[in-house]
């Protein structure tokens, strides 16, 4: 990444004191063999990592194997990847007398090339199968790039046209607490300028996806290049993890800053002793990473604090201040260069855009602590308390980092993710996208063990822990303003989705609440539902009934999965939730499951419909009505069947039968006529109180004829 091998190889003061300990953070040079004390154990770890790298190559073959029907020639790539992975594993365990470490490192490059090739092919098929953009962020960024390419400042324009232009699902929008989608460009300029070269070449189809995938491939190569040889195979493992490749091809643009952040992480603590281009590389990469998204912003205080402690110990307070200012100035300049055209022409619009994630009052979401308030009756009464907790935890981590330095030095690039875990928007990308750079930082920094921690560091830790625990406790104990329960649902029948929900809502507070309702299915928050009955403002300690309907098909939850209703209020920012509603706990299975030969006209067949639970355990319930329907799915459309079910009329559908003591309903079927199209039979249950169908069986196909 622009740093010479000799500069990274030079041992830092005090490193000899760690002899006898296996400490990866002692940081060997890029591309140099890592041989601390306990070399045998290190060699064993390296061989295990090389084995995992080979296994990841095989895993890419498995991923691609499912797309052979789309492209038959892909079979060659699958075979090559599988064989390459197996060979890499075998070679990993050959003795050094047969394959030297240098040769093993070169073979590792072949594994990296195979992983990158697998990533490119797999990403192509993800686009081929689902070409619509999955998130608003990637759609906004490509649309902004297209505006910039035509000389327009994207910070002065609404991003709403990007929704239909890139076919973004309404569930992929970012919503405000009021239920309105965010339509402002929300990131610094490099987030969309990265797409300009491809667009300038006239490549607009899936341009943003390909750049994001290329960025992750670049991060993979960079990770292998800068990691110590003993752990370099870890790059193939990290690059192949599902969450990362899913983000790269699925519309999460964080992969753009990962290779830049890796460049900033390599030996970042040697900034104070580096000269010339080697000193500029780290802060320039950091500034450019900050120009992509806001997440890297949070790393800078930890890096500056570390540089200050390193320089203070070696050169005194004044030099420490100068080194911090020098790093900050270079990083800031690198950040401003791609942003300057938009900052200069419309500073207010640029500031509002860049700070949109902090001021837009977006709905809470993610896999962090806030998920407790979104799924359980824990907290939710103050979303501001979550953000306050995140700020306090971040401040505590920074204070402990500085006071106990260098104890947390190896974790400098990951500590911001710990703080983001407590924010009201704590997406998985915030929690995992700093890990590649954190690995680089942890394995390439030197442990300056002669730097003593501040003598009061335990007091800092204690006070910070108390403050953090108090802030977190406030977030998870502030009760939601509303109590909600689902009274009934209305479904779409055989489509098996919920399109209307009736709610009983009670305001437990002494102030007005203006609820905005939506559905949460898993961790997915849908487009906000329309309120067709119930007061717009629910007064203090009042109760009311609400009816809400889905605004579009994308917002309808599946009847087969559980869902919750969420209600957001912006004053104060809060979320309330209903209990989880699982419409379908039983289902029906048919025996026989297939009829593989034509049934002669007039001949009866017996079909048994058994009720089972979600684990396929028989439900021995008697006198439960089961309904068996029949239809012909002809090429020209639906047609009525002429078959007889039990003692029903010709073509009657559905026909009811009651279960016996074993929970099995029996149907006899015959047809007086033959046909060129088969008849499709499907059984289901009906809710006894709300009368919606559920528990649909697999379809049984029967051909009647000779």
Topology:
Elements: H1 5-9, H2 39-65, H3 74-92, H4 101-129, H5 136-149, H6 162-165, H7 190-193, H8 196-200, H9 207-226, H10 234-239, H11 242-250, H12 258-265, H13 277-290, H14 300-315, H15 317-345, H16 347-354, H17 356-359, E1 365-366, H18 371-375, H19 383-403, H20 415-420, E2 425-426, H21 428-432, H22 435-444, H23 457-477, E3 482-491, E4 498-507, E5 516-521, E6 524-525, E7 530-533, E8 543-549, E9 564-570, E10 573-577, E11 586-591, E12 605-613, E13 625-634, E14 637-639, E15 644-645, E16 655-658, E17 664-670, E18 679-686, E19 693-694, E20 700-702
Parallel strand pairs: 1-2
Antiparallel strand pairs: 3-4, 4-8, 5-6, 5-9, 7-8, 9-10, 11-12, 12-17, 13-14, 13-16, 13-18, 15-17, 18-19, 18-20
Explained architecture:
- This protein has 706 residues and is of the alpha+beta class.
- Among the domains are: 482-577, Immunoglobulin-like, CATH 2.60.40; 586-702, Immunoglobulins (Immunoglobulin-like), CATH 2.60.40.10.
- The chain has 23 helices and 20 strands.
- The strands form five sheets. Strands 13, 14, 16, 18, 19 and 20 form a six-stranded antiparallel β-sheet that branches.
- The radius of gyration is 30 Å and the shape is globular.
- Mean pLDDT is 90; it is low at 1-37.
């Amino acid at each position: 990444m622009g740093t010479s091998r000799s500069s990274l190889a030079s041992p830092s003061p005090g490193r000899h004191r760690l002899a006898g300990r296996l400490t990866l953070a002692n940081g060997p040079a890029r591309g140099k063999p890592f041989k601390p004390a306990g070399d045998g154990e290190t060699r064993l770890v390296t061989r295990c990592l090389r084995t995992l790298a080979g296994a990841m190559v095989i895993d890419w073959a498995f991923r691609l194997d499912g797309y052979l029907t789309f492209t038959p020639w892909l079979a060659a790539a699958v075979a090559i990847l599988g064989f390459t992975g197996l060979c890499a594993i075998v070679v990993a365990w050959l003795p050094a007398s047969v394959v030297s470490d240098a040769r093993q490192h070169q073979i590792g490059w072949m594994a990296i090339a195979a992983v990158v090739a697998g990533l490119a092919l797999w990403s192509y098929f993800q686009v081929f199968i689902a070409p619509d953009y999955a998130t608003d962020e990637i759609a906004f960024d490509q649309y902004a790039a297209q505006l910039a390419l035509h000389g327009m400042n994207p910070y002065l324009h609404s991003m709403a046209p990007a929704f239909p232009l890139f076919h973004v699902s309404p569930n992929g929008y970012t919503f405000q607490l009021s239920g309105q989608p965010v339509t402002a460009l929300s990131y610094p300029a490099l987030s969309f300028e990265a797409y300009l070269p491809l667009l300038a070449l006239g490549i607009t189809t899936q341009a943003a996806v390909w750049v994001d995938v290329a960025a992750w491939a670049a991060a993979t190569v960079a990770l292998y290049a800068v990691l110590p040889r003993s752990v370099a195979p870890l790059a193939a493992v990290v690059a192949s993890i599902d969450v990362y490749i899913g983000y790269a091809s699925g519309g999460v643009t964080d992969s753009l800053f990962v290779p830049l952040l890796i460049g900033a992480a390599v030996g970042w603590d040697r900034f104070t002793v580096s000269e010339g281009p080697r000193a500029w590389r780290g802060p320039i990469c950091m500034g450019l990473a900050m120009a992509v998204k806001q997440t890297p912003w949070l790393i800078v205080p930890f890096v500056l604090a570390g540089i200050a402690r390193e320089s203070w110990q070696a050169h005194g307070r004044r030099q420490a201040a100068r080194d911090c200012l020098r790093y900050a100035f270079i990083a800031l300049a690198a950040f401003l260069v791609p942003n300057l055209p938009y900052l200069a022409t419309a500073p207010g619009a640029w500031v509002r855009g860049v700070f949109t994630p902090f001021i837009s009052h977006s709905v809470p979401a993610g896999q962090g602590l806030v998920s407790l308030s979104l799924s359980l009756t824990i907290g939710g009464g103050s979303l501001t308390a979550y953000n306050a907790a995140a700020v306090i935890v971040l401040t505590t981590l920074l204070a402990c980092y500085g006071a106990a330095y260098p104890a947390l030095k190896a974790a400098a690039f990951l500590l911001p993710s710990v703080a983001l875990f407590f924010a009201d928007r704590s997406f998985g990308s915030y929690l995992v996208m700093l890990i590649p750079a954190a690995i680089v930082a942890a394995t390439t920094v030197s442990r300056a063990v002669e730097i003593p921690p501040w003598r009061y560091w335990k007091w800092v830790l204690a006070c910070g822990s108390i403050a953090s625990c108090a802030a977190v406790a406030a977030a998870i104990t502030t009760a939601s303003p509303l109590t909600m329960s689902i009274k009934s649902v209305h479904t779409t029948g055989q489509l098996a989705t919920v399109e209307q929900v009736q709610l009983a809502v009670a305001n437990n507070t002494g102030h007005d609440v203006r609820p905005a309702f939506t559905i949460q299915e898993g961790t997915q928050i849908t487009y906000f539902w329309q309120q067709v009955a119930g007061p717009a403002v629910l007064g203090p300690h009042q109760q009311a009934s609400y009816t809400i309907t889905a605004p579009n098909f994308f917002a309808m939850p599946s009847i087969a999965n559980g869902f919750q209703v969420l209600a957001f209020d912006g004053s104060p920012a809060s979320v309330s939730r209903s209990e989880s509603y699982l419409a379908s706990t039983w289902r029906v299975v048919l025996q026989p499951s297939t009829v593989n030969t034509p049934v002669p006209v007039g001949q009866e067949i017996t079909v048994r419909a058994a009720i089972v639970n979600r684990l396929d355990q028989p439900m021995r319930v008697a006198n439960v009505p089961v309904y068996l329907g029949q239809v012909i799915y002809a090429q020209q459309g639906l047609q009525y069947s002429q078959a007889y079910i039990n003692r029903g009329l010709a073509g009657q559908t559905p026909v009811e039968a009651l279960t016996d003591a074993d929970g099995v309903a029996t149907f006899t079927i015959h047809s007086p006529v033959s046909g060129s199209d088969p008849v499709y039979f499907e059984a289901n249950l009906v809710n006894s109180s709300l009368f919606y169908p559920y528990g649909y069986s697999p379809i049984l196909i029967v051909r009647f004829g000779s």
